[in-house]
Amino acid sequence: MISKARVFKPSIRKAGFGDLEAIHALDQRLFPPGVRFDIDLFYFHLLDPASTIFIAGEKDFIGGFVIFERLSPRTGTIVTIDVTPQLQGRGIGAKLMSAVDKLAGRYDLRWIILQVSTANLLAKEFYVKQGYVTTRLLKGYYQGREDAWEMKRRLIN
Ligand SMILES: CC(C)(COP(=O)(O)OP(=O)(O)OC[C@H]1O[C@@H](n2cnc3c(N)ncnc32)[C@H](O)[C@@H]1OP(=O)(O)O)[C@@H](O)C(=O)NCCC(=O)NCCS
């Protein structure tokens, strides 16, 4: 466990199957039932050649992760981004997003899209800071019960 007082200097690496339980556990801490993902979804993205999971970590400790998936030759999506609660607001999310940007650049993608719950104001603010703009409202996106904003960012290659 990393305490607030300690400086956490994560490096970014690609996730492997050994990370499955830790990333699932972090997601469960951050999201309520109905919004959080089933472990099978993480397993799918570890197997899927169009997906990449980046981890911000130090040795065995995972401070955060992002799942990115290529949807088409021009478009990718952020499936989710999670930073461990005691380390939020220290630039880890931004670091993970820049790893995604670099990868998207290598694939010559033009757009990255994502969905964020309309109740998740802090994450929406984070994405705005990352250059994303709101494109539309997706009514009932989360199990018919919660709406989401679709957000999009154009990549300049
Ligand atoms: C949203 C999340 C991924 C952001 O990661 P983070 O490591 O906390 O964000 P960073 O520290 O990299 O912040 C980057 C920028 O966004 C801003 N930001 C981050 N969290 C913010 C917040 N709660 N409110 C306002 N701005 C915020 C920071 O001020 C920073 O801007 P700056 O560089 O101008 O100072 C993280 O808070 C998180 O895991 N939240 C819970 C899970 C979640 O909601 N994920 C999104 C799913 S759609």
Major sheet summary line: 7 strands, mixed
Q: What kind of oligomer do you see?
A: single chain
Which of globular, elongated, flat, extended, rod-shaped describes the shape? globular
Number of domains: 1
Key terms:
alpha+beta, binds coenzyme A, Aminopeptidase, single chain, 28% helix
Show the helix and strand layout.
Elements: E1 11-14, H1 20-30, H2 39-47, E2 51-58, E3 61-70, E4 75-83, H3 92-106, E5 111-117, H4 121-129, E6 133-142, E7 146-154
Helix pairs in contact: 1-2
Quick structural summary:
This protein is 28% helix and 36% strand. By secondary structure, the protein is an alpha+beta fold.
Report on the structure:
It is a single chain. This protein is of the alpha+beta class. It has a single domain (11-154), classed as Gcn5-related N-acetyltransferase (GNAT) (Aminopeptidase). Helices cover 28% and strands 36% of the residues. The chain is built from four helices and seven strands, in the order E-H-H-E-E-E-H-E-H-E-E. A hairpin with a 4-residue loop joins strand 3 (61-70) and strand 4 (75-83). Helix 1 (20-30) crosses helix 2. The model has no long low-confidence stretch (mean pLDDT 94).
